[in-house]
Amino acid sequence: GVLDRTYAYADGLGITSVFARDPDGDRLVAAIKINGQWQQLSGNDNGLLVFEDRLASADPAELKDYVYQRSHASSAEPDAIAEAYGLKPIIVPVGFKYYGAVIKSNLGKWGTRYFGFEESYGMSPGHIAEKDSLPALVSMLKIAADQYRKKENLFDKLEDILAKYGFKGNAILNTFIPGDDVPTRNASKTRVLESLEAVQVGE
Fold it and tell me: pTM for this one?
């Protein structure tokens, strides 16, 4: 895939951090080479890093009407950061159209006082009613540069954030739903969800 080719190119140049945007520019992936192995950050990791940096760098006056959004499928870890700054999350269904509805109603009013992210590598600072990987890339590069000066990387920063605000736990499960027709696929989805509920109860 694209990332594999990117890793090979970076290896040839001795680069240990890579960032990639998708063709329509609305998602961002970051990866770090640690002990000879490339490790990719999750979309939740990206959101946690950028959100913490934005709040830590904000003028206190900007926080009064700051708006923070995530989907119910995204990590709840940034909620602890929001709480520390006196913010409450707006939790919406999966799909950036739900973020966009909130952004559209306030477009032009927030400036740097908005942040929304989703686990599937999308985020927005609220400048448009959609996710945009360009400002996300700028933020991630700034954080990476700050870490580089300390001879650390983005994963080190993640550990610092989790140590400070607490680890709620998150995981992303990719699964194949079999079936060639809607009833069969719906039945398969039900079995998968029941299996996941059984695992959670068992834990």
Answer: 0.81
